[in-house]
Each structure stands twice: as C-alpha cells, then as structure tokens.
Design goal:
The chain has helices spanning 20-25, 45-51, 64-74, 93-102, 178-201, 217-228, 235-249, 256-284, 291-302, and strands at 7-13, 31-38, 55-58, 81-84, 89-91, 110-121, 124-126, 134-141, 145-147, 156-158, 162-173. With 310 residues, it is α/β, with parallel strands linked by helices.
Length: 310
C-alpha cells in the first residue's frame, strides 16, 4: 500500500463489528499503521482488526477523550502524522487521494489538517441545517496534537504551528437503527450534563485548548456560542429556538422526512434532554457545598468515574 503520507490511523472501538472493516478499508491506501484501541468488545471487532493487520490494544473506557489520549500515550506510533477516525466513519476516495498527494508536501509550520465531515442518516446525506460541512481537526503531526480533556464534545487541538483544510469527502455513516441512535444520545446527554455542571461548579479541570489557532475556526466559534450564550438560556427556550433555527433558517426542511427525524432528534430532543438532565442533577445536589461530596453524588447518579478530575 502507498506509504508516502506516513500516517497512523487511530480508531477507538467497542463492539464495532458492523463498521470496522468498512472503516479500515477506507484508509488502507493512506495508513502506514492502523491502531485499534478496544474497550473489551464481545463481538468480532478484534478479529476483524487483526485480519487487517492492525495493532490492537485493550483499555478500559472512561470517555472518548481519555481513551484517545491513552492511545497517544501508549500506542507504538512511529508515523509522522496521526489521523483520528471513528469506527463508523469513512475516508472517501477523493480525500484518500488528497491526503496521499498533499500531506507529504505540507510545509513544516503546518501541524494540523481540518477535514469536512458529512453526516449520513437513514442512508441519506444531511446537507442542510448547518450540518455540512462540519469542519474539525482530525489529522495532525505526531507530537503537535492532543485531545481536550472533556466529558463531551472533545476536539483535537494542535500546537506549534497552523492548520489547513482539505476538501475531500469524510463521512459519518452509522449503520445501526434508531434505537441505537437514541440510546447513544441519551448517554451523550448525561456526559454533556456532567460537563456543564462540572464546569459551572469548578469540579472539572479547565482545558483552555480550543482556540481558532489550535483547532478549526468553526469548532471554536460553536464552542464559544454554546458556552457563553446557549447554555445561559433556559433549555425550554434554547432547545426549541435551536431546532427552529436549524430547520427553518438553515434550511433543514430541505433534507426531507429523514432529515426531519434527524433534525428533531439531534437538534431538539437531544438538546432538551441535556437541559432536563442538568435540571435533574442540579436538584439532586442542591444544598451541597463540599466539592468532593458533589462529585461523588454526581458519579453515583450517572455511573461515571469522576474521581480523577480536579
């Protein structure tokens, strides 16, 4: 396989047998190393990874940020560049070609590459509602990138140089059903609620890594708006307003019936659920003053290990 790009691809897995072969096949032409960090899968994830010749490591999962950073600290990566890829994502042929041709020619001051992600839902590309392109830093020079230490909405941040953006196709296409989608987002909502409460109360270690220089400008702007404006509005108003903005003003209605399902669930139901969980958790810890006691109670309620924070 071509190795001019000198890239290691890191994929985090837990029972991703339905997706993994597709993901690895999409990066074979650009990956010199494929590293799978598995959370003790019970399906055929590991055997699929081994069939493709990937390096397989096992580590207990706490959250996405910690798992990826564990990979960076422990995987035997020797390549110059590292690509973070989710198991349900695909690097399309035009981006494969772009990485192969452009990556070896980038000047030394370029330490990160932003990719334009498209979302496929119910086998249809969600083109509207502000969902394309989602520009995120996923490819970085080894030694110049790390993942933010967050419970939710973590991003790769780079240091020591600048980022550029490639134009090729990069798709998030999960093959599971709506039950999986809603169960996953229910877990996401819990983690995001913990992130919001923990930040408000100073329970979580601050990670100031997300800036327009250290990551994509789009991602840093969204983070600023969410934390400085959106999260300060009552969720009963903000979640509805966000959905209407996406669906009407950002033309989400043009995505058809499947688009309505997606925008409603991801743009309204999920945002409302996050707000409701924040309300529920804040009620549970009302009157508590000791931060360790609050952290223990939140950990008990959510089933998350918050002990190593702060």
């Amino acid at each position: 396989m071509p190795t001019d790009a000198n890239t290691a691809v890191v994929i985090l897995t837990k029972n991703e047998g339905i997706h993994l072969a597709r993901a690895i096949a999409s990066i074979q032409s650009i990956a010199k190393q494929v590293v799978i960090v598995d959370s003790f899968s019970t399906d055929d994830t590991v055997s699929i990874a081994e069939k493709f010749g990937a390096i397989v490591l096992q580590n207990k999962f706490v959250n996405q940020a910690k798992q990826f950073q564990w990979a960076m600290d422990n995987a035997p990566i020797t390549c110059d560049w590292v690509l973070r890829l989710d198991a349900d994502e695909i690097i399309e042929a035009d981006l494969q070609d772009e990485i192969s041709k452009k990556l070896p020619e980038l000047p030394p001051d370029v330490v990160g590459v932003n990719l334009k992600r498209k979302h496929i839902f119910m086998d249809r590309w969600v083109r509207h509602g502000g969902r394309y392109p989602l520009i995120m830093t996923r490819l970085f020079r080894r030694g110049h990138g790390r993942v933010e230490d967050r419970w939710m909405d973590e991003h790769i941040v780079v240091s020591g140089g600048r980022t550029v953006t490639f134009e090729g196709g990069f798709a998030d296409h999960n093959l599971n059903d709506l039950s999986y989608f809603t169960e996953k987002h229910n877990k996401y909502a819990t983690r995001e609620a913990i992130q919001v409460i923990g930040t408000r109360l100073g329970l979580l270690q601050s990670d100031p890594g997300m800036t327009s220089e250290a990551s994509s400008f789009q991602a840093s702007c969204k983070r600023f708006i969410k934390e400085k404006i959106y999260n300060r509005i009552p969720f009963t108003i903000s979640s509805l307003g966000y959905f209407l903005y996406r669906y009407i003003f950002q033309l989400g209605f043009l995505d058809g019936r499947s688009g309505l399902v997606y925008h409603f669930l991801q743009g309204y139901w999920y945002r409302f659920l996050v707000g409701a969980k924040i309300m529920e958790l804040e009620k549970a810890i009302a009157g508590m003053k000791d931060k360790d006691q609050i952290r223990e109670e939140l950990a008990r309620l959510c089933g998350l290990d918050l002990g190593d924070k702060k």
